[in-house]
Amino acid sequence: MALLFSSPSEMLSHGFDTVIDVRSPAEFAEDHVPGAINLPVLDNEERARVGTIYKQQSPFLARKIGAALVFRNASAHIEGPLAHHDGGWRPLIYCWRGGQRSGSFTWMLQQIGWRAEVVEGGYRSWRRLVTRALYDESLPFRFLQLGGYTGTAKTALLPRLAARGVQVIDLEGLARHRGSLLGGMPGGQPAQKGFETQLVQQLDALDPARPVLVEAESSKIGQLLIPPSIWEGMKTAQWIEVGAPLEARAAYLDAAYDDILSDGARLKAQLTPLRYHRGHALIDSWEAMIDAGERLALCRSLAADHYDPAYEKSMSAMTPDVLERFETPALDDAALEALADRIAARIQTISM
Q1: Taking the C-alpha atoms of 19, 21, 22 and 26 in order, what is their torsion angle to the nearest 10 degrees?
Q2: What was the pLDDT predicted at 47?
Q3: Is there a catalytic annotation at residue 299?
């Protein structure tokens, strides 16, 4: 009998020994149920081949060829990565929509004697639960936004605050992007669906009776959209703002953006679009600093002449409710630890 879950929390606490995603590696890479392993019964090429036969030749022929491939691949999984499991093993299986791929594999595991079950509706059931939580319903959390000029080490503060018991969601960490013009990170960003699955997983672990801190962002982080339920909570959130001297911020940016600052050609290409917003003279001066290896001077100018005006314009448009502003003279490890102590102590005084 297929299992139907009614909420992300219920599916995340499924109680099975292993969750197996039998979809193709490409499907799995885009998104999957947290903690699932990928044992495809059709790989990327096989899935494409069967789909083409189904559309262009015959559904019956596609099912016949697909069945042979599914059982061949399932046999390899049983002899390989699943061979060590004993008779009490309880796996939960899903494919795209709970159809032939997961049904066939689950039947085979059950014939061996394993207590396998299949997810009704497959991955699409999980996706519907995620969409409902992030797009259709309001969240039961009070958000706080951590704001401040670019280079005030907000991202570096988040894990320090989490270590002090503050509930934190690191949106930029999940999005694998630093949330600015030069924010791209090696490896690129996850798919939107994968980003949303990570968000749901983190939200499920939070206590609604305590505030949740997020870094102040626009509605997009790189190419990824912040889902509506989180964005609505952020728009009405109070702010905690961090301030630091320009020199300290420049030094922090020099270290935090080392990857892009070390690649002059890439850096110039990413700054080029700003010619139409900041003028040719400023961008020419940045390119001269890049050629001369003057990284601190470049970071200082990027902050003062680009990021700060953009932040001030955004703040004047939003007029956020700033709960408290915290100044720090430096942004080295010792200063950030002391700053985290102060912010955490303030957050702990907030009543729901």
Answers
A1: -160
A2: 87
A3: no
